[in-house]
Amino acid sequence: MPDHTAALPTTDEVRARARAALRDVTIPDGDDRQARTPITGGDLFGLRASTAADVDQAIAAAGEAFRTWRTTPAPVRGELVRTLGDLLRQHKSGLADLITVEVGKIRSEALGEIQEMIDVCDFAAGLSRQLYGRSIASERPGHRLTETWHPLGVVGVISAFNFPAAVWSWNTAIALVCGDSVVWKPSELTPLISLAVSHLLEVAIAKTGAPQGVHRLLLGDRAIGEQLVDDPRVALVSATGSTRMGREIGPRVAARFGRTLLELGGNNAAVVAPSADFDLAIPGIVFAAAGTAGQRCTTLRRLIVHRDIADDLTARLVSAYGNLPIGDPFDEATLVGPLITDQAAGKMTAALEQAQAEGGKVLAGGNRLGGAYVEPAIVRCTGQTPVVREETFAPILYVLTYDSFEEAIALHNDVPQGLSSSIFTRDQQEAERFLAADGSDCGIANVNIGTSGAEIGGAFGGEKETGGGRESGSDAWRAYMRRATNTVNYSSRLTLAQNVSFL
Ligand code: NAD
Questions:
Q1: Is the pTM of this model over 0.90?
Q2: What is the set of active-site residues?
Q3: Is the pLDDT of residue 76 over 90?
Q4: Mean pLDDT calculated for residue range 270-274
Q5: Domains (ranges, CATH) in the chain?
Q6: Pocket of ligand 1 (CB under 6 A)
Q7: How many angstroms separate the alpha carbon of residue 186 from the centre of ligand 1?
Q8: In this model, does residue 1 exceed pLDDT 90?
Q9: In the chain, % of residues over pLDDT 70
Q10: SS3 55
């Protein structure tokens, strides 16, 4: 694999790019935390972290704003989100720079993340005129039965490092048109992009005259998130991150009868059938497995290949991996940037050692190139061993083989996670069976396309240990509202349901 890590920028150069992108943004100076970059591993700026009192004040302000925001007409609320979308369009390049600086995403993927935010703002602005309720046939004469949707309250958004801005926008754009206010706790690893997009929302709030407290940003570590989790004034906690995190917060929010929307880890697989078109499958697999340096929740981690084509397919994948340039994510030629931290690279090495101890054979990559840079790896496995069943947040593709379609589906579903899945086949019956009730058990199931790179129009999320939440498109908005069933008697008689008579 072409290793370009000898030609990395300096930390000063990376800092200069960040400063340019942040020129209009107020940075809370301090020395509680350091903004840092995985490109060099260097520190960029000292920051003041939010305190427990800040969290309390943010939730109070969001609650206060909610009182007026909930009765603001939804299409007027949509105007705020439309304005945010316009500002994101204007600042797309600088925002993408910040994502590259803090996460190490290559330029094209960083721009793609901002585009996704613009798309979700467009979607939410349209949605602001489509928060439909149902009209239901009443069993009683002279009665009208309807369902109405009302704003829910303060939404606490806790987000992960790997989509540091898009996940915020999925939640915030939808929550705002639904009439909720938002308090956001981003990943401790991505404060700069969080400050930048929050600043743009503040500008949009000022332009449209929306109440100021409708959005609040809190910087800090998980203790800040825990405070949001435990505060009864937060009606919904929408949390994106590891299954470990979801397992901790789910019961805590449930204990106070709050709502959660959980978007947790994945362990995504693609089945490759004997009829698969390799010209589709190979680029689809390589992007899904090695793109974003293997740090998408939808990254392809398991390849379940028919035995007859396994040797041929893996040889072609090994060859494709040999041409993946690794290095400076700002360099247009780079396809694989750094992992988020040196520790993440260490976890990848540990997983590869475990895979080998469990009988796996490394066919490509797997070397550490210094700092947080690694070579994406392909590992041929003897079976779905313990390491294959875990999500290692790094570019490791485990290759498993199958003989019958039923065996492929059984292997596919035999992991604790249930986020994304795909099949490469030209056999329509196989494709349909993969999508059927006894096929893939995931929230996302694709045909002839990889597991990653979802569009915002569909509901996004997964089953089992992925948490069951749905964000973004389709009717995911319902999670951000409360439902009321209304019965109106416009007759002159009191008729009881189920023919009950009384008095
Ligand atoms: P993480 O779980 O370490 O942290 C995520 C966020 O949760 C951070 O803001 C963190 O501060 C906060 N947090 C952690 N423990 C908490 C607690 N006990 N209470 C309150 N807040 C807490 O995850 P990460 O390393 O930032 O991100 C990678 C993980 O996120 C992967 O597992 C990936 O699959 C998952 N992810 C899932 C989706 C999805 O939509 N399903 C999307 C992106 C990332």
A1: yes
A2: 263, 297
A3: yes
A4: 98
A5: 9-264+467-483 (3.40.605.10), 268-460 (3.40.309.10)
A6: 158-163, 167, 185, 187-188, 221-222, 225-226, 229, 240-242, 245, 248-249, 263-266, 297, 391, 393, 419, 466
A7: 9
A8: no
A9: 100
A10: helix
Question: Is the distance from CB of 92 to CB of 234 less than 8 angstroms?
Answer: no
Could you read off the pLDDT of 274-307 as tens digits, one per residue? 999 999 999 999 999 999 999 999 999 999 999 9
Check if the beta carbon of residue 381 is closer than 8 Å to that of residue 355.
yes
pLDDT tens readout for residues 308-317: 999 999 999 9
In the chain, % helix, strand, coil (3-state, to 5) comes to 45, 20, 35
CA–CA distances in Å: residue 158 to residues 70, 104, 420, 476: 22, 21, 21, 17
Residue matched to tokens 């992007």: 287
* Angle (deg, nearest 10), helices 74-90 and 92-103: 70
Q: H or E stretch including 411?
A: helix 405-413
Q: What is the mean pLDDT of residues 481-503?
A: 96
- What six digits make up the tokens of 99? 């994502």
Choosing from 218, 221, 240, 451 the residue with most ligand 1 atoms within 8 A of its CB, the one to mutate for a pocket test is: 240
Q: Are strands 259-263 and 268-272 parallel, antiparallel or unpaired?
A: unpaired
The alpha carbon of 219 and the centre of ligand 1 are apart by a number of angstroms equal to 15
